[in-house]
Write a structure and sequence with these properties.
single chain, 2 domains, alpha+beta, elongated, binds copper (II) ion, five-stranded mixed beta sheet, 5 helices
């Protein structure tokens, strides 16, 4: 594809790329067709021998209008409706099919604030807001090949949680809980960017998603769970309040 997009490291990013490619191709072809049509009209209706001036029409006869309408309708059905149907199928069949019932999914609470991201995963007890939570700032470690299920809240203003290498984003909105899920297909270090202008330091509000093979992730998790710094952060009530543990199900 001629467009240069960030590397796709996700299980479903190709669906988004497919939509972008389809739209680029179809609108590109339509653009070329219109240009050709204009070029032909200019050449064939120009002023030339036997014609004192260029032939032109305002295109406002009923027949012209009907033809214009028909062409526009065909374009609308061929490009927009086809695309809408395709995107709707992918949204309901994949992107909006949240792994609520999947015990294998890694659940992550994201708390956004000016200007950082706090990530919290439940520890071995499987509950959020307890002393075995793993809390990290601006860096999230995840396993490859498992659904990563994010729920997001904001402490102050609207922030955008954007994963360019996963072709997806969602806003973190004060007063409500939003959600998003992705799956990494390969290990790597991928940027997380705030995609809403959220204040003077918006430009440096960014995080890192580190995808590790399952075994390596488990090693990391075992270290993190015994890391005194992380444990203190998770256990300290003030930090817990600041880093925003909430009930996973209700988002409160
Ligand atoms: Cu932000």
């Amino acid at each position: 594809m001629p467009i240069v997009l960030p590397h796709d490291a996700s299980a479903d990013g190709h669906l988004v790329d497919g939509v972008i490619g389809y739209l680029t191709l179809t609108t590109g072809l339509a653009f070329v067709a219109v240009l050709l049509f204009l070029l032909i009209a200019i050449v064939f209706h120009r002023e030339r021998a036997g014609r004192t001036r260029a032939h032109h029409t305002h295109g406002n006869r009923p027949r012209d209008r009907a033809l214009t309408f028909a062409v526009a309708l065909v374009m609308f059905i061929a490009i927009d409706l086809t695309l809408a149907a395709r995107a709707a199928g992918e949204l309901s069949g994949r992107f909006w099919r949240y792994p609520d019932a999947d015990p294998n999914a890694l659940r992550v609470e994201v708390t956004a604030r000016q200007w950082s991201l706090t990530f919290r995963t439940a520890g071995p007890d499987g509950r959020f807001g307890t002393s075995d939570d793993v809390v990290t700032l601006n860096e999230l470690n995840v396993p490859v090949g498992r659904p990563i299920y994010f729920k997001l809240r904001s402490r102050d203003v609207v922030h955008g949680f954007y994963l360019p290498n996963f072709r997806t984003k969602i806003d973190a909105i004060p007063g409500s809980t939003t959600r998003l899920w992705v799956q990494a297909q390969e290990p790597g270090r991928f940027e997380i960017a705030c995609a809403q202008h959220c204040g003077v330091s918006h430009y440096k509000m960014r995080g890192l998603l580190v995808a590790r093979p399952e075994a390596e992730y488990r090693d990391w998790l075992a270290r993190a769970e015994t890391d005194s710094r992380l444990r203190t952060e998770a256990a300290d009530p003030a930090t817990r309040e600041a880093s925003g543990a909430w009930d996973w199900e209700t988002g409160r």
